[in-house]
Amino acid sequence: MPKGIYIRGVINRKPHSETTRLKMSMVRIGMKFSQQTKDRIRIAKTGVKYPNRKRYSRGITPINKICLFCKIPFVTNYIQPKKKFCSLSCNSKSRPEMNLANLEKRDKEKQRAVVSARKGEKHHAWIKDRSLALENHRLRNVKVLIEWRTSVFHRDDFTCQECGMKGIYIEAHHIKPWRDYKELRYEVSNGITLCRDCHKKTLWKEDNFIEKYSLKVLTKL
User: Which of 77, 150, 183, 184 is 20 to 30 Å from 34 by CA-CA measure?
Assistant: First the structure.
């Protein structure tokens, strides 16, 4: 790379959060280079000149400060004039709420609070009386319904009566809704074969298709 002064471009990115910055700093605490690594660094930098740093080396005035945590004096410079702590260790110890253990504990407590806020009667899908739902589930898994579905498929030759497709996933549709006409739930004349996509179009719109599908079934009887 050619020598010279380079101005960094503006990078529009989201800054790290306090938690992430603390974790990044905690990783380097206590890290030590081996003597072999130190020798390699010394040899690699031997004779290297930094012409762009000469203008910064002039007039650097040390700033004497006192650490806010351990009260020990330390020296900083114009690069970090607002430095308040002598080390990363003192910085982390001064904020116990940002300690890794406390952060994990706080995250767990927050997660428990979210779960408890959506648990039981507070959940949007809470059903106070499940007897109706259980009964509906039982009726939809009886042998009579399976036989009704098979009869409807055989009558329609396993073909969707809406789009005419064959050899795809099919479902038996109640022409008159299951929830409103209990006496017609297992009548073969009240059933028609539809593929999954066509069946979805009738969801909560069954009344719009009663006349159309009833005529189709009458032509087959």
Answer: 77
Burial class (CB in 10 A: 0-12, 13-18, 19+), 53: exposed
Q: CA 187 to CA 184: how far, in whole Å? A: 5
pTM more than 0.85: no
> Using CA atoms, how far apart are residues 187 and 217, in angstroms rounded to an integer?
12
User: Along the chain (221 residues), what's the average pLDDT of each consecutive run of 10 residues?
Assistant: 54 78 82 87 81 55 88 85 88 76 75 84 84 85 92 95 93 94 93 95 92 91 71
Contact 205, 175 (CB under 8 A): no
8 Å CB contact between 60 and 66:
no
C-beta pairs of 97-106 under 8 Å, 24+ apart in sequence: 98/18, 98/19, 98/22, 100/22, 100/23, 100/26, 103/19, 103/22
Q: What is the domain partition of the chain in residue ranges?
A: 17-26+60-110, 140-220
- The alpha carbon of residue 126 and the mean position of all alpha carbons in its chain are separated, in whole angstroms, by 23
